[in-house]
Structure to design on (643 residues):
């Protein structure tokens, strides 16, 4: 693809950046275009940016503040990274906006900070931006404006936040108050930093609040804000905490490049994906905090590859704006708290501009990503994930046996042994068995009712599929991961246990399911959903189904054992406007005959590839032998795996 003509970029440099061609100048040009595009949507005093698009549940004024705060973070990276040598109008816009936003008489003032209000999120961006641009903005503000800004931030002191990454918004904002000599609460700061210790689960991973909440918030919030706080506190004010945070981020970054495909795409999993290249925040912070294990050329190749990927696909759009979606506008991949300016948390993806132009990250020659060089396999026991990349097509797949975005299971007793008690509805961005850099889950409401893709379900007689709610991890090591969950059917108070083990071999995932079911239930399993601008090609045969997009991305499922679906045992389901990757989507799936009840074993082979896929041949690629609870897989190369 080529860059959209509305975004004027400098020529590529294939000597310095052999993989992407991008340099620091490309980043600066992209940031400038995004910032310039906001000005038509500013209120008269530049305190709010009221962008077009669906409003959030917080209202138009909060959404306008969000536009100011999140774009101010982008402006701060640009201003501070250039040592203030930017168009003076940029600095002036945000200085004027600070004055108007904190003036109750301006007609565009910001809402006060109250407990658990959206303003808390936005205040943290303003605090970071003020710190990073202090010589050019804060130090030049009128004393009265400084007092009003301090007064607005003071709403944090002694305030209550949501008990997750929000605790860190209070931490950085009150540390900014401390840095300018204003009243603040040391106990608020220490309490927030102490709280995240409860969520650290090892190997560089946090969960975002209680439960198994693993997604990009771990990088763009749980790792990011503690080290932003340390930048504000300074080396003499962090109490030694930053050493720990730097060690944890370093460990996290060891695995992080494996989340990105050769084309720069991050794995499409978790909430708030409309933040897009905010996924680069921990990569840049590793360089800023001098704690990254990644070579400078790898850091830039990863970051530039991701930003270029989105730019080549119309992000920002022809107006220079970020929309609510992934590429185009796609509201099902957003949340009710997402307003038209929410995507500008993507500003975190520009933190690398805070590094000087002569830093090695900008001057070293690009190095390849892991998936550029070889097939990759990574087991991440903390979140319960397997990552699997294939060099020939550049795709990275995530096999999910651990992240469900649910609160932890409450302590049960003899009278209440329900492992799903307290769990919420399943979320397609967490509950699926697999995600990838080339696909997105079916997430529109009409598609959620069918719940086809990357999911094994019991189907009730009325056609209702069971859900995968709370995930209970069992194993994650090497190329194998396993978990169990509970399936429920309408009118049946009993829960039926489904245990799944995933085995990676070559480009394939083999899934072994041990399924409890009532008499007459049908078992159904879907592969990855593929989506495109035109309707994908579909094909089926005895015990297999395949869907392929016009550019050759193929999703297939092949029955290896226990399905016995007969003529109706494999099919492809189509949908429209249900997928972030395109308006036309398709899901291959397998379907069993009605079960006699009790426990059965089902084994399937799942493929996502840009290669030609021959399902009939794949049926003979793995031999399956079942002996009681033991399932032995034997591959053509002689590899033998027992699960």
């Amino acid at each position: 693809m080529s860059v959209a003509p509305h975004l004027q970029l400098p020529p590529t440099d294939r000597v310095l950046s052999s993989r992407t061609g991008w340099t620091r100048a490309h980043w600066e040009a992209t940031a400038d275009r995004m910032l310039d595009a906001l000005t038509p949507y500013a209120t008269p005093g530049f305190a709010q940016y009221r962008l077009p698009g669906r409003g959030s549940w917080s209202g138009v004024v909060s959404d306008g503040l969000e536009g100011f705060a999140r774009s101010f973070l982008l402006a701060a990276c640009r201003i501070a990274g250039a040592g203030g040598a930017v168009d003076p109008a940029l600095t002036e816009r945000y200085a004027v906006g600070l004055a108007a936003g904190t003036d109750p008489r301006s007609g565009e003032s910001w809402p006060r900070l109250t407990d658990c209000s959206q303003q808390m999120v936005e205040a943290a961006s303003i605090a970071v931006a003020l710190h990073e641009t202090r010589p050019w903005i804060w130090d030049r503000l009128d004393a009265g404006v400084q007092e009003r800004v301090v007064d607005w931030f003071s709403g944090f002191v002694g305030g209550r936040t949501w008990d997750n990454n929000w605790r860190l918004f209070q931490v950085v904002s009150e540390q900014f108050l401390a840095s300018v000599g204003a009243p603040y609460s040391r106990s608020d700061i220490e309490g927030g930093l102490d709280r995240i210790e409860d969520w650290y689960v090892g190997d560089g991973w946090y969960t975002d609040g209680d439960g198994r909440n693993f997604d990009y918030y771990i990088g763009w919030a749980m790792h990011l804000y503690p080290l932003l706080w340390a930048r504000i506190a300074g080396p003499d004010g962090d109490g030694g905490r930053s050493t720990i945070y730097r060690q944890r981020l370093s460990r996290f970054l060891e695995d992080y490049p494996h989340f990105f495909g050769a084309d720069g795409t991050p794995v499409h999993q978790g909430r708030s994906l409309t933040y897009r290249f905010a996924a680069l925040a921990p990569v840049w912070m590793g360089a800023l905090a001098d704690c990254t294990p990644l070579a400078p050329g790898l850091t830039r190749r990863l970051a530039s590859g991701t930003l270029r990927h989105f730019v080549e696909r119309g992000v920002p759009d022809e107006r220079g704006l970020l929309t609510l979606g992934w590429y185009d506008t796609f509201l099902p991949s957003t949340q009710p708290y997402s307003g038209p300016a929410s995507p500008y948390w993507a500003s975190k993806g520009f933190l690398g501009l805070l590094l000087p132009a002569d830093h090695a990250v900008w001057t070293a020659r690009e190095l390849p990503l892991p998936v550029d060089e070889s097939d990759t396999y990574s087991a991440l026991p903390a979140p319960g994930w397997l990552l699997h990349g294939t060099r020939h097509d550049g795709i990275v797949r995530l096999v999910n046996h651990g992240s469900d975005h649910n609160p932890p299971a409450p302590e049960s007793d003899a009278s209440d042994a329900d492992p799903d008690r307290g769990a919420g509805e399943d979320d397609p961005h967490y509950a699926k068995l697999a995600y990838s850099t080339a696909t997105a889950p079916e997430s529109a409401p009409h598609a959620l009712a069918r719940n086809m893709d990357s999911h094994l379900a019991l189907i009730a007689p009325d056609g209702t599929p069971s859900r995968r709610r709370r995930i209970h991890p069992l194993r994650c090591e090497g190329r194998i991961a396993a978990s169990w969950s509970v399936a429920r059917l309408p009118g049946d108070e009993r829960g039926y246990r489904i245990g799944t083990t995933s085995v990676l071999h070559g480009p394939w995932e083999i899934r072994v399911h041990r399924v409890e079911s009532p008499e007459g239930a049908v078992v159904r399993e879907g592969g990855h959903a593929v989506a495109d601008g035109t309707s994908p090609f579909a094909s089926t045969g005895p015990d297999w189904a395949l869907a392929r997009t016009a550019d050759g991305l193929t999703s297939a499922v092949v029955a290896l054992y226990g399905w016995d679906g007969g003529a109706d045992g494999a099919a492809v389901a189509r949908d429209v406007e249900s997928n972030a990757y395109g308006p036309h989507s398709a899901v291959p799936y397998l379907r069993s005959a009605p079960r006699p009840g009790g426990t059965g074993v089902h084994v399937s082979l799942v493929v996502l590839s840009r290669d030609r896929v021959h399902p009939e041949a794949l049926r003979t690629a793995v031999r399956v032998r079942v002996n009681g609870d033991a399932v032995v897989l034997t591959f053509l190369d002689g590899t033998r795996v027992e699960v």
